Amino acid sequence: MDNIDDNILRALSRDGRISNLDLAEKVGLSASACLRRVAALEKRGVIAGYRAVLNRQAMGVGFTAFATVGLNSHTKASQVAFERAMSLAPEVVECHNITGSVEYLLRIEVADLPSYKAFHTDVIGTLPQVNAITSYVVMGSPKDLRG
Fold first, then answer.
1. How far apart are CA 12 and CA 120, in angstroms?
2. Is the pLDDT at 94 greater than 70, yes or no?
């Protein structure tokens, strides 16, 4: 990795659909050299893929919350069961196993507060391994670089 690779990655993270010609111009390379570098970054796994950035509001998602979840048992079986349930829940867009006083941090996106309450009560609240749930409602996101 060098400064040119860093510049390529920054440009691609801002616009994954940029043409190779425009990318090459931005980073100061010939088109063929730029294409070789991007291919090398993909081959090494530095660039893991490309995706569309979705406008959640336009999709009817108007409510985002983070929730911490504590399990009542610290076994592998409890973790596997919880993670499986979260992987099947479309409302959960991120699930992180974390350190601290609880085991998981979730990012949950739904239409509105009643939808979140239903998810909280009918999905997370029914899992036998869940001991504690704490919700944090997102009021705004002044910086969000997820792609």
1. 36
2. yes
Query: Whole-angstrom Cα distance, residue 82 to residue 69?
Result: 10
Q: Where are the beta strands (DSSP E) in 1-147?
A: 63-71, 92-97, 104-110, 130-137
Please state the pTM of the whole predicted model. 0.81
Q: Which amino acid is it at 16?
A: G
- Please provide the average confidence, as pLDDT, over all residues in the chain: 95
Residues 24 and 30: their CA atoms lie apart, in Å, by 6
Question: Encoding tokens for residue 118?
Answer: 């239903």
For the chain, list the domains and their CATH numbers. 3-43 (1.10.10.10), 57-137 (3.30.70.920)
> What's the CA gap between 24 and 123, in Å, rounded?
48
